[in-house]
Amino acid sequence: MYEVEIKAYLDNKEEIIQKLILLGCIWDKKIKQYDIIYRLNDTLDSNEIYMRIRHENSTRPILTFKKILNSFEVIEYETVIDNSDELKKMLQLIGFKEYAIINKSRQVGIIGEITICLDDVEGLGAFIEVEKKVENSHERECTLSDLKNFIFSLGINSKQLCNKRYHTMINEQKGGLSLCKLSEND
After folding, report:
1. Which of residues 99 and 152 earns the better pLDDT score?
2. DSSP letter (8 states) at residue 91
3. φ, ψ of residue 152 in degrees (nearest 5)
4. How far lies 43's CA from each of 46, 47, 78, 171, in Å?
5. pLDDT value at residue 42
6. What is the Cα–Cα distance from 118 to 30, expressed in whole angstroms?
7. Which helix (H) or strand (E) element contains residue 12?
8. Which of 35, 52, 87, 120 sits at a 20 to 30 Å CA gap from 66?
């Protein structure tokens, strides 16, 4: 299973919410997420592999394995965990290091097969993520184009697009680097 995703910074969140409501977005409850990201190294790599322990509201923690294929595509596997403290020790023993902590509130909505996440990320601001899961690599290119068209239809422009993960932006912010940019030439 592949997850195709586009993220954008929002400076007009309420306006975007109203447009999504008009499009028939079905909203779920708001959730609080506390993520601890573990990586094998500190280099930024298009084929990055990382693990995330997510605490969400009062539910059991979830471990997520992610392999980044490119800026917009991820292979992802998740499982519920019983003891996050023991898991942290295991991750450290096999070489994973704590890389970042992300605190955010998230509002999730659905329009057709598209999942919409409106995030308020502590220290970074407001973002929208639109994503769709696809079964095979052949569907990825078409899906990416569809998601871009959808996000642009909301009035979001290309300068607001962001191809970086929250954990990367948090660490770059600590180092004073540019947060959202699509390429090294932006």
Report:
1. 152
2. H
3. -70, -30
4. 10, 11, 24, 12
5. 64
6. 9
7. none
8. 120
